[in-house]
Specification:
Strand order of the largest sheet: 23-24-25-26-27-28-29-30
Distance between the termini: 45 Å
Helix content: 10-25%
Structural class: alpha/beta
Number of helices: 10
């Protein structure tokens, strides 16, 4: 799905701001047709934001079920005769949308965009009522999975199997945008070859409306100068004196796609940024533009006090500046696709991204212990993770690739985090999903993130993937406090994985650390222990050639559900939730900026 970009033929307006809002725990709104008039009450919440974080008290924080948003908008008067589209960048976890009394859209999945052609339901210059009901429930058929438990007193409790808080609502922007009726509906740009100072790109354009209209493409450099061009909806273009997109140097070209009329007049123009770069796996090496690349960085979360997972450009830019300050060159979008603005920024600034679906919690063994759930349960079955989950998972992969395929910063598709890959049932579940990911995009490696219990002799699916991405917590969840034994065990296991002949990225390692907690003997939870643990991992990585990356868990402390193992959230960040550095941040800065 194309982002709503402005051009000579396209305009957009944001619908962000304050919306009317109602919690609907009993589901009355659907039965009473709340979309047909003004919502009851006078409550308002900001969009984008997590209502669970904005509104005080347990009623909103723990809400399970429907919530309603509504806003009266005015369509720009200059849009008469245009195709008018309503787009939601995300609604967590599913939504139905009405314009006036008419349902215009329905979507499952909380982290990817959806849109509706509302041309027949609005008038240029006139007002229109937009109503969205968002359902917050996680089910066995959703990605991520979960289930709703009814307690003896009638309250509903959302159960889930991932270690971050289930923030919900309209977390990202809502747009109204206008295009011509005959318009560019999709663009795909791939780098096919880099030969010296010449880069060759392949492109494919889809046109909706009158699909037979001629198409012309022009490549413009970062200064807007035309450097290449071609005719036709599909083909290749050679760029002389090409400037490559590189880690740390995010040079972008623009593919300007023009749909022409019968007389050669311009019908639609869509500008698609892209970078010229290649990604490949060569034995144990991970290559960008044919050169070995070593990942340094973090797993992150879209998480900040008050607005929760709601997109905030100030927080985003601050986080990227902290990545630059500490010397990180990459991050993983754990454990869901981030707002596309993150990828746009990473494209422009040369930050490398492992792009992940929301398939987290496909491992019911984690229900005991850390997540304080009843368990263990059988992960793969007709009543838990089954064909219905796999169908939603496949759709999540399709929507992720469709949205992010043109971002040069994205170098790996991660299709799941810490699933159960010990059970033999994991292989028939994942094998078709890997094939589908490769069919959708054969240009990028495919991976998943391996759970600690799925050691080399037990894991049943890693051979299906191009890169080994591994989460390990020796010294924390295993051999707690014993870094001597942990170093020995970590190195032994990584050497076993290295025998697979694939590059290894350690995508999670770390220790919960309370900022300001100190210890002369480096006790757990102290800042000293976090520093010592990270140093131990780094010694091991430096001894194993197959390790091509280190991404610490986590960039910053983040919110989780409550429990005896979580006091004020997960504290594995090297920054606090408010983005203040712990001692480990300064240690990492010395390592990653080459100052050791």
């Amino acid at each position: 799905m194309l982002s709503p970009r402005e051009s000579a033929t396209r305009e957009r307006v944001t619908l962000d701001g304050l919306w009317r809002f109602v919690l609907d725990p009993g589901g009355r709104g659907r039965a009473e047709h709340w979309w047909a008039g003004a919502l009851p009450g006078d409550a308002e919440v900001p969009v984008p934001a997590s209502f669970n974080g904005v509104l005080p008290g347990r009623e909103a924080h723990d809400h399970v079920g429907d919530v309603w948003y509504q806003r009266v908008i005015r369509v720009p008067r200059g849009w008469a005769g245009e195709r008018i589209v309503l787009r939601l960048d995300a609604a967590t976890h599913r939504a139905v949308v009405w314009v006036g009394d008419t349902q215009v859209a329905e979507h499952e999945g909380g982290y990817t965009p959806f849109e509706a052609d509302v041309t027949e339901h609005v008038q240029a210059g006139e007002e229109a009522r937009v109503t969205v009901v968002v359902n917050t429930e996680l089910r066995w058929s959703s990605i991520p999975p979960g289930f709703v438990q009814e307690l003896e007193d009638g309250r509903l409790l959302q159960q889930y199997f991932h270690d971050f808080f289930n923030y919900t609502g309209l977390h990202r922007s809502v747009w109204l945008h206008a295009t011509p009726h005959t318009h560019v509906s999709d663009v795909t740009v791939t780098t096919t070859r880099i030969n010296g100072e010449v880069g060759t790109i392949g492109y494919r354009v889809a046109v909706a409306g009158d699909a037979e209209r001629p198409v012309r493409v022009v490549v413009r450099d970062a200064g807007g100068i035309e450097v290449a061009g071609a005719d036709g909806a599909q083909g290749t273009v050679r760029i002389e004196d090409v400037q490559l997109w590189r880690p740390g140097a995010g040079y972008l070209y623009t593919l300007e796609v023009t749909v022409l009329g019968a007389g050669g007049e311009v019908v639609d123009v869509y500008p698609q940024p892209f970078g010229v770069r290649t990604v490949a796996v060569d034995g144990i090496r991970f290559l960008i533009n044919g050169e070995p690349f070593y990942f340094t960085g973090f797993g992150k979360h879209e998480d900040f006090p008050v607005h929760g997972r709601g997109f905030d450009p100030a927080v985003m830019v601050h986080d990227f500046e902290l990545l630059r300050w500490i010397g990180a060159n990459s991050f993983r979008t754990s454990h869901y696709p981030y707002d596309e603005a993150f990828l746009d920024y990473a494209d422009r600034h040369g930050i490398v991204v492992i792009d992940e679906t929301a398939a987290v919690g496909l491992n019911l063994d984690t229900g005991a212990g850390v997540l304080n759930q009843a368990g263990p349960m059988e992960t793969y079955s007709d009543t838990t993770i089954g064909a219905h989950t796999q169908k939603a998972h496949r759709q999540a992969i399709r929507e992720l690739v469709a949205r992010d395929k043109n971002h040069p910063c994205v170098v790996i598709w991660s299709i799941a985090n810490e699933p159960d890959t010990v059970s033999p049932a994991a292989r028939p579940y994942f094998e078709p999903l890997v094939a589908e990911t490769r069919r959708l995009d054969p240009t990028r490696p495919v991976g998943f993130v391996n759970f600690m219990m799925a050691t080399p002799e037990r894991d049943v699916i890693s051979d299906l993937f191009d890169v080994l991405m591994i989460n390990r917590y020796y010294g924390w969840y295993a051999n707690t406090g014993d870094l001597v034994a942990s170093e020995r065990l970590l190195e032994a296991e990584l050497r076993e994985w290295a025998q697979r002949g694939k590059p290894i990225v350690m995508t999670e390692y770390g220790a919960d650390t309370q900022a300001g907690q100190h210890s002369l003997i480096g006790e757990t939870w102290s800042e000293e222990y976090q520093v010592d643990l990270l140093a131990m991992y780094h010694r091991v990585f430096d001894r194993i050639d197959a390790v091509v990356g280190e991404q610490i868990w986590n960039f910053a402390d983040f919110a989780t559900r409550g429990g005896i193992n979580r006091v004020g959230g997960n504290k594995k960040g090297v920054f606090t939730r408010e983005r203040q550095p712990k001692a480990s941040a300064h240690t990492l800065r010395r390592r990653w900026r080459g100052q050791e």
